[in-house]
Design a protein that fits this description.
13 strands; about 20% strand; alpha/beta; 5-stranded mixed sheet; about 40% helix; about 325 residues; homodimer; ATPase_NBD (chains A, B)
Chain lengths: ~325, ~325
C-alpha cells in the first residue's frame, strides 16, 4: 500500500544562507536545516549537502515527499527551473531544477524568494483575506513579491517584482545589475552596513565608534543593538533607510493600488526604527485616496516565509481551501 | 421590432479637451466630436454639450447605443462611477456616472484614460497577441494602463497605474499630488514647456529665442517644429525627457516584467526625438534578461485609443474574439 504524499521540502536560497525544511500540507514545519553560503563556494554542493542533512535529521520517509520547492534570490525562469541571474549568489544560468532532480529524483518547482514569501503572507500571514498584497524583503538585497486580485504576478519571464532594482535616485549610485540609483543601493542590509561604516570612518559620533578600535567594521547587528540603546547615530540612519523604502513603497502603491504591504527580510529585526519612517513617508507623500487604508506591517511568519511559500508551490491550492489552523 | 444595440459612445476626458465618438463593436469610429476644456469651465456642462453635439452630428438612432464609456484622467472609482481626483481637470469626487445617466438615460461605464488606451492597444494595437503590456501616456500629465497576463490591472480601488506619480528623483520637485520628484514633473507636456521656457529665459541659444520677442512663451508645438528644423536646444531637451521616461520605464519593466511598452499622448508627436533616448536608456540601464526582448513603440491608434478603449468597456469581450479587421 502506497503512503500518502503529504509533505514537501521548502528550500530558501538566500544571499548568505541556504534554509531547507520539510513542511506539511497544513503548513507545519516538521524539520529544518540551515547552511551558510558565500560566493566562493560551489552553491550546488552546499544545497545538496543541506537537503541531505535535513533528510537525515528529520527521519522522514522520502515516499511522503511531493517534491522540492525552491525559493531563490535573483532573476529566475520557473518553466526551465533555472536561476538566470543572482548577483548576491554569484551565479548565472544555474540549472537548479536539473541538479536537484538528478540528485534526489523528486519533482522540483522554482520561484523567486520574494514571491514565495508573498504567497505565504497572503495565505497565512498579514494579507490573509485580502486580494492585493505586496511583500517587500529587505535583506542582503531588496525584492518584492506581488499578489494582484488573488494571483501571483509572475511577468512574461517569471521575473516580476525586481523592486530593489527600481531607480529612486536620478544619477544615483551604480548597481551591480547595470542600473543606477537602485533602491537596493540605499536601503538593503548591505547598504545600511556600508553607510554606517562610511559615516563612522568620517568621524560621526556614535556609541559604535569605539567598536571600530577592536573590529574592522561595524555589522548590522551592532547597529540594531546601538539603536535599542538609544544611539542617535543609529536611529537617524535607520530612519533614513525608512525614508528610502518609503519612496519605493509610495511608487508601488501608486502603480499597484495594493491593500497590504508586508515587510520581511533580515533587516526587519530593526523594524522598530525603520517602519515608522516608512509609514510617515507614505502619509506625507502618497496620494491620500490610494494610501490611507493600506496596511503596512512587518511579517508575522518571519524567516519561515521563504521555505513555507516554496513548499507551498506543491500544495498552494490545498492551503487556500483549508482553514489554516497552524 | 427592437433594433440591435451595436454601438457605444466613447468619451475621452483629458486635461485640455473632451473627445467623444460613436464606435461600432467592430471598432469602427462612426462619428466623433471634440471640445476644449479649461479649469475655469463647468466640466459637466462641457461634457453634456459635447455628447449632444456628437449625437446631432452622427444622426445615429439612440436605440442602437449600448451606453457611454468614459475614459478619464486622474484617480477614479469605477464601481461608484466617480472621478475622485484629477488635478488637470480641477475636479474632486465628480459623479460622472450619475450626471450622464440622468442626462442621457444610458448605462455608463468608467475607467482611467490610460487603462482605456491600454485595452485598445492590447486588442487592436501594438500589443496584439501579447499577454503583458504597459501603455504609457505622456500628455498634460503622465499615466499608465497595465495589462497583466491578459487582464487589466485595476488595483484595490481601480486606481492602479499612477505612473506619473512615481518618484524618480529623490528630494525632487513637489507635485500637486502631494508626492515629490514625480516623473510627471519632469517628463509631461507641462514639464517640457516649463523646462524649455525656463532655459530660454535664462539665455540658452535656440531658434526659439526669437519667438519669445513676439510670443509670451514657447509652446510644445514650437519645440516640435524647432526639433524638426535641427535646433540643438530642442533636440537636447527632448532627449533629456526621453532619459527621464527611461528611468520610469526601466522601473516598470523591473517591476512588471512586461513584454510591450506602448507610448501615446500628445507629447508623442515629438516621439522621433524622445523614444530613441528612452530605448537607449533602457538598453544601458535595464537588467538584460528582462529588457532585451521588450517591444518599445509609439501607439498606432493615436488619439483614438482613449475613445476606442472607453467604448470597448461595452463590448471588450466581443472585440477579443473578433479578428478585428478594422
Amino acid at each position: 500500500m502506497s503512503k500518502t504524499k503529504d509533505l514537501a521540502i521548502g528550500l530558501d536560497l538566500g544571499g548568505t544562507k541556504v534554509l531547507a525544511a520539510i513542511i506539511s500540507e497544513k503548513g507545519k514545519i516538521i524539520s529544518e536545516f540551515e547552511s551558510k553560503t558565500d560566493t566562493n563556494q560551489d552553491v550546488s554542493k552546499v544545497i545538496i549537502k543541506t537537503i541531505n542533512q535535513l533528510l537525515v535529521k528529520s527521519k522522514v520517509d522520502v515516499n511522503r515527499l511531493l517534491g522540492i520547492g525552491v525559493a531563490s534570490a535573483g532573476v529566475i525562469d520557473s518553466s526551465k527551473k533555472e536561476i538566470l541571474y543572482a548577483n548576491n549568489l554569484n551565479i548565472e544560468n544555474f540549472p537548479i531544477g536539473d541538479i536537484l532532480l538528478k540528485e534526489f529524483l523528486l519533482p522540483v518547482k522554482l520561484c523567486n524568494d520574494a514571491n514565495a514569501a508573498a504567497i505565504a503572507e497572503w495565505v497565512w500571514g498579514v494579507g490573509r483575506g485580502k486580494n492585493n498584497l505586496v511583500y517587500v524583503t529587505v535583506s542582503t538585497g531588496v525584492g518584492a513579491g506581488i499578489i494582484i486580485d488573488g494571483n501571483l504576478l509572475k511577468g512574461a519571464k517569471d521575473s516580476a517584482g525586481e523592486f530593489g532594482h527600481t531607480t529612486i535616485i536620478h544619477n544615483g549610485k551604480p548597481c551591480e545589475c547595470g542600473n543606477i540609483g537602485c533602491l537596493e543601493k540605499y536601503a538593503s542590509g548591505t547598504a545600511i552596513k556600508k553607510l554606517a561604516n562610511d559615516r563612522l570612518q568620517s568621524g560621526e559620533v556614535s556609541i559604535l565608534s569605539e567598536l571600530l578600535h577592536s573590529e574592522k567594521e561595524v555589522a548590522n547587528n551592532h547597529i540594531a543593538f546601538a539603536a535599542k540603546e538609544g544611539d542617535l547615530f543609529s536611529i537617524k540612519l535607520l530612519n533614513e533607510i525608512g525614508n528610502y523604502l518609503g519612496i519605493g513603497v509610495v511608487n508601488l502603491i501608486h502603480l499597484f493600488n495594493t491593500e497590504v504591504v508586508v515587510f520581511g527580510g533580515g533587516v526587519m529585526n530593526m523594524s522598530d526604527y525603520i517602519l515608522p519612517s516608512v509609514k510617515k513617508y507614505i502619509k506625507e507623500h502618497g496620494i491620500k485616496q490610494m494610501t490611507e487604508d493600506v496596511i503596512i506591517e512587518k511579517t508575522k511568519l518571519g524567516k519561515s516565509a521563504g521555505i513555507m511559500g516554496a513548499s507551498g508551490l506543491f500544495f498552494a491550492g490545498e492551503r487556500e481551501k483549508t482553514s489554516l489552523t497552524t
